[in-house]
Amino acid sequence: MEKTRENYLAWVRDAHAMEEQAVTMMTGMIGRLENYPTLRERLQQHVAETEQQADALKSILEGHETENSMLKDTIGMAMAKGQALSGLFVSDEIIKGLMASYTFEHMEIAAYRVLIKTAQKLGETEAERVFVKSLAQEQAMADFLADQLEPTTGAFIAREEADLTAKR
Ligand SMILES: [Fe+2]
């Protein structure tokens, strides 16, 4: 199971970088959102959840960690900062941000499902429990964002037609 363990640690590390990226993305969005309070509040709640998820992943990593893999995670985070800024400052940033968030949550769901299966194979039961909890949070956020697509688009269109600030 040595190869499986190596893959597992790489995937935990990737998931940690992904959650750090999620916090950066969502914080950026929250800072600019003005006219979509439902979305803003739910994003704030999910930032808190995501910070806990990142901490949990970090603890799992620290249980196994080597120096060289921490370095890789740092590089992942630097890339995340750049990506987080793209898509903002456009005339329909709320719509772009909503679509990006919806996509991102589904990437997180996929990552946790892979981690759960791998943790099961390795008998990492405590880690598996952590991943199952995070998966439920990601699924709930993905469901919320899915439900927001039409109402937010409707609100955006209505605000634009009324010459109100629609983009954020
Ligand atoms: Fe998430």
Write the layout of secondary structure elements.
Elements: H1 2-32, H2 37-62, H3 67-85, H4 93-122, H5 125-161
Helix pairs in contact: 1-2, 1-3, 1-4, 2-5, 4-5
The structure holds fe (ii) ion.
Task: Explain the overall architecture.
The protein is an all-alpha fold. The protein has 5 helices and no strands. The chain starts with a helix and ends in a 7-residue tail after the last helix. The structure holds fe (ii) ion (FE2). Residues 22, 46, 50, 105, 108, 138, 141 line the site of fe (ii) ion.
Structure described in brief:
The chain is built from 5 helices and no strands. By secondary structure, the protein is mainly α. Fe (ii) ion is lined by residues 22, 46, 50, 105, 108, 138, 141.
Helix content: over 70%
The multimeric state of the shown protein is: single chain
Number of helices: 5
Mean pLDDT: 90
Question: Which kinds of small molecule does this entry bind, naming each only once?
Answer: fe (ii) ion
Strand runs, count: 0
Question: Helix and strand string, N-terminal first?
Answer: HHHHH
Q: What structural class results from the helix and strand content?
A: mainly alpha
Taking the alpha carbons of the first and last residues, their distance comes to 49 Å
What form results from the Cα inertia axes?
elongated
Strand content: under 5%
Radius of gyration from CA coordinates: 18 Å
Biggest sheet overview: none
Low-pLDDT parts are none
